[in-house]
């Protein structure tokens, strides 16, 4: 499982070593060279880091990139615990390492041609408010539809794993069932998740109730486990 730049690294590894990868779970993935707007944005942040270090403006830019407005808060609503924790973690990061990260992400290569040859199962999550939303849609369009599925999470930024992890449970359970890594108990309930499909009414499984929008892309999963 990889998020944004981590998803790019995992995808790159999978394209180069296809025999060693069975499946990918990607969150707000990157797969193309950065568009000019993102490149310029990263360049400005890199220059600010170089001259001023991890200043407040840099933190705000990074938080806006990874979290939605709902959790970042406003003048009337305080920011969530998740954002506060992330802000504290940014205080602990060396500005030089963040600068190197931005330089690397700005120099990434296009994986479009390699994606067409990727045949491992791929499950993609992306928040509808993520700045990488369009790139996730683009990546899904280039993958083989027999092996891939896309889940768009409403009112969420790039960090679906932090903002709305509950929206990932059911898609991930079905994804893992294809590998025999998850077996429902005799009662038909997931031992780890109260959101198992057999434990809740069908009405609650609607995309609106789950807070997700499921794209009509079928995942090649065998239900005989």
TrEMBL record:
Family: Belongs to the NDRG family.
Alphabetical list of InterPro entries matching this protein: AB_hydrolase_fold, NDRG
Family annotation (PANTHER family): N-MYC DOWNSTREAM REGULATED
Database matches in Gene3D superfamilies: alpha/beta hydrolase
Name by which UniProt lists this protein: Pollen-specific protein SF21
Classification of source organism: Eukaryota, Viridiplantae, Streptophyta, Embryophyta, Tracheophyta
Source organism: Ananas comosus (Pineapple)
Residue runs in coiled coils: none
């Amino acid at each position: 499982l990889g998020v944004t730049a981590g998803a790019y690294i995992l995808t790159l590894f999978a394209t180069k070593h296809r025999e060693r990868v069975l499946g990918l779970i990607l969150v707000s993935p990157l797969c193309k060279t950065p568009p000019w707007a993102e490149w310029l944005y990263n360049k400005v942040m890199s220059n600010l880091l170089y001259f001023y270090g991890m200043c407040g403006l840099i933190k705000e830019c990074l938080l806006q990139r990874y979290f939605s407005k709902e959790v970042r808060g406003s003048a009337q609503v305080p920011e969530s615990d998740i954002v506060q924790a992330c802000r504290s973690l940014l205080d602990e990061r060396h500005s030089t390492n963040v600068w190197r990260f931005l330089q690397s992400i700005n120099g990434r290569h296009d994986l479009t041609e390699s994606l067409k040859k990727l045949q491992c199962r791929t499950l993609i999550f992306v928040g509808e408010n993520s700045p990488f939303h369009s790139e996730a849609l683009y990546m899904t369009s280039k993958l083989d539809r027999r092996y891939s599925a896309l889940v768009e999470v409403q009112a969420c930024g790039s960090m679906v794993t932090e903002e709305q992890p509950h929206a990932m449970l059911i898609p991930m359970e079905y994804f893992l069932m294809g590998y025999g890594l998850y077996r429902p108990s005799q009662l038909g309930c997931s031992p780890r998740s109260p959101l198992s499909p057999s434990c809740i009414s069908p009405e609650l499984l609607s995309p609106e109730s789950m807070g997700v929008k499921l794209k009509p892309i079928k995942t090649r999963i065998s239900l005989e486990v």
